[in-house]
Structures are given as structure tokens and as C-alpha cells.
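Long-time lurker, finally posting.

We've been working with GroES-like protein (Daedalea quercina L-15889) and I want a structural starting point before designing mutants. I don't trust myself to interpret raw outputs, so I'm hoping someone here can both generate the C-alpha cells and explain anything notable. Sequence follows.
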Amino acid sequence: MTGCSKSMKAIVTLGNGRFDLKDIPVPPISAGDILVKVAAVSQNPVDWKTALLHQKSDNVLGCDFAGTVAEVGPEVPSTMRRVGERVAGFIQGGVAPNGAFAEYVVIQAVLAIPLPDSVSFEEGAQLGIACFTACLTLYQYLKFPTPDCPAKVPTPVLIWSGTSATGQYAIQFAKLSGLRVFTTASPKHFEFVKALGADEVFDYADSRTPRKIFASTSGTLRHAMDCISQDRTPNQVSTSLSKEGGTIATLLPYTSRTKGVKTVSILAYTIFGKDISFPYTQPAVAEDHASGIQYAKLISKLLSEGKLKPIPIKMFPNGLQGVQDGFEYMRAGEVHAEKITYRVSDTPGVDP
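Top reply, 14 upvotes:
Generated this for you. Predicted structure of GroES-like protein:
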């Protein structure tokens, strides 16, 4: 199959903050790419935010997906990818006519996550942004050891918002890396995040939580990941750290007002190794691209070994046609420790 010989259904931006399910050409593949027939996709906050803030027409929304390789592009070794292979991954949706909320998506072959048969497409669809962000944070920017060579001394790390998608995977990666994991959640989710690997959990809504974390770590906490990065969390996370300060990896950019606290903004799109113009300007980071290739292999390996637990799935009906309902559900603040997911084959007009 050639990329332009077939049309597909996709969620396409209209240029006014809105979108629609349309028939458009399948995106063409270039050297180093693969074309994936998408089986399932999952939703992230960035999906509805991109539709609202990046008001350009004819772009395909959606980042996270899982499916099977439909076509392998030039310069992709046959030992790397093959037609029919089960893979997962993510793309920067909403900025080009190539996004996850579609029947087909094009990605770099080296960044595809080989999906073990033990992992369903619905589970695989949630891996992309959450897992790559967690890996970039812990290993590239906070410089912790990977699960392949875990820490011999359990260094403390704080993951604020352990029930968020990125937080759930960050807890698991951190624990597999031999770290002592501190996190926050609502009291009803304390046991849930402990089952993921959290050593100590604190109520995110308790004003005393930063002081409690400081006390529990004996004032030695130097590393944190802020999975919310807005409202009160910049101050809460900053004041949880040691008196000497430390480093906070943030998912939205901010500067801490606390003396000695450095912040570093994590943007998963940097693993593509290309310049980024949205949501903010970011030059290509070759090191992140090289690391991303290794993270794809690590994620697949841990899945094969049964060491990563998927986020509980909330399946929306009608496939891609249900995206509007999913966006409204998320914007209303109804998402709690779950991942909104859509099966592409449930979309009206799409062949099973």
C-alpha cells in the first residue's frame, strides 16, 4: 500500500478550536518511517488544549496510539520493523495532517514500542506520552539509574500527583530503578498508588503535606517531578525539598520562587529530534532523540517481563466519533486515575 492511495477517517481540526470526523488521505511515509494501522488511541489533556489553542485547519488530533505496522518506509532495516508487527507510540497531534486520532498514523520506526502479545491494543494505546515523559524525567534530566542497573541506595524522589497518567508510570519506573518513592493522591487512592510502588503517600489537598514530606525525608529530598505544574503545586513541591534546594522536573514550564530550587521543563516531543514550535519554541535535542530510542526498547522489555501495570481504562463508545464526549468529560474534571480510550474499529463507517 502506498501512503496516498487510500483515504481514512480522522479527527480533523477546523481552525476555530473545533474539529470533525472527516475522510482524508492516509499520510505518506518517508525514509525511516513506518505507517501504522491504528487499533486504539488514548486521550491526554494536550489533545483538547491543542485543538483549542493551536487554531489551524486540516490537522489531525491525537497523540497516543497502538496498532499494527501496515507499511515500512525506505531505510528501515528489516530486522527493526516488519509489516504486521504490533506497536505502540505517540506523535505530536494537532500540528500536521498526521495524528493518532485516525485510522493510520506515521511515526519514526526507531521510536515505536514493540508491543508484547500479553498487552492489548487498548492498554498499549496509553504508553506513549506517559512512559516517555517518565523516562525522560527520571533518566535524562534527573539522572537516576534505569531499571537495568537500579540504585544500590534508595534515593528519595517525589512524584506529585501519583494518580495522573504520567504519575502512575513514573512511580513504577522509579520503583524499578531502586528509588524510594514519595507521592501525593486523594486518600481514597492511597492504596492504589502504593500498589504501583509508592513507599509513602500524602494527601495532595492537605496544606501540611509539604511539611510532612520534608519531615518524612529528614530534609534530604533533592529531586521531584511535578505532574500538575500549576496553581498551588509549584510552591507545594518546592517547599517539600531540602533546605539546600534541589531540582523539579515540571510538565508545564515554571520557575520556582524557593531559593536553591532549579526547575527543568519536560516536553516529550523532544524525543523526535526535531525543532518544536508548539506549545512553545524548543530547538531539536539530539540527546533526547537518542535516549528516546533506548526508552522504547526499555518500555517493551518491562512490558514483556510483566513489570508495568496499565492505567485503568475508561472506554468511550463510538470510537473516534466519541472524542468530543471524551474531551468534555476531561475538561469537566471527571478523570480520576483512569485513561480515556477509544477503539478505532468502533467508529461508524470504519471497517472492523
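Before you design anything, note these points.
The chain has two domains: 7-126+310-346, 131-270.
DSSP finds nine helices and 16 strands in the chain.
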